[in-house]
Task: structure prediction
Amino acid sequence: MINREITYKRDINCSYMIVPAMPENNFDEKILLRRCLDNFIPVQKCYEGSAGQYWYDITGKQALDSYCRINNIGKIFFETLILKLCQAVEVLDWNLVDVNCLVLDPELIFINTQEELSFVAYPFHKGNLALELQQLLEYMLTKLDHKDTTVVGWAYKIYEMSLLDGMSITDLKQVILEERSRMIVPSERKIVREEAREEDGFEKQAVQHNNFSPESIKQKIQDVLKELLASLENKFPKKINEYIPIVVYPEDPEEQQEEDAITLHPTVCLSTMKKDRRELICDRKGVFPDFVLEKGAYIVGKNHKVQFHIEKDTISQFHARIECQGNIYYIEDLNSTNGTYVNENLLSYKSRKELQSGDSIRFGDVGYHFY
Result:
């Protein structure tokens, strides 16, 4: 983790993560500022007075910790993360940048809408890469889909290997690649079994069974229907015109008046009318849906996995998050492309805003009111 204050700032077009820079320069900084390295967040150095700042362009990207709150982490993503880490280390090595500049904190690893990973290189970060890798793997173990025991077992195996003396990221990469190549074998065996079945004549036999004429198919359907009707007659021997008589009693006029009075003027206990849910009402009725908010957390976005789905090009896949804590509702932008606004104030990434009844909320260009 970078041992310096991290802030976020965004305007209409871009979103930035800002980290204070050291007063002196070093070789790693010069390389990172001059070159746009593959798999890394672009960075530029700006000054506020005499203080320097590194501005990382994270437009349209989510931090790994935010991504894990929304998605179940499976084996493919877990392996891809390690493989991309290996590539990032190789890129730093090729460009003569100290590999310990790579920061492996879940808050500083980013994912775009195509689920491509990008990393942060901090020029003055002198951490221990092996230790940070172990801490990252420990974090990911808590975010895995624990319903899949195979995935969890495989991830723990990778974690235990990272604890061995002399084990490097490159070694873990080799283990994962070997595992992926090994997983191809079952599919090959399936093909062999299918070929063997065809040779034994199973395929020909199936073709013969399916070689019916239209007349034979019609006859078979009629036979099945006759058997079905016969079984129904055995279960329900009554004739169709037999029925159970229904007795209708005349209504008492006085009782009917009392029932009407109860219906028209119901007694309501005012103490139980406390509103335990809120609503997001769309400004354009019938164009986009309204949403009901109760306890818990809700994701707003264009992705079909989210609780509040808005199908529009200006809405990000995972656009914003609304969460209820106690009786207070908070909204947080998930670094969406077109931003989230509360009362026309643009929210910064990683900042939460308390919602009040009557607040206007705008996801991109889709407006709602909170009640």
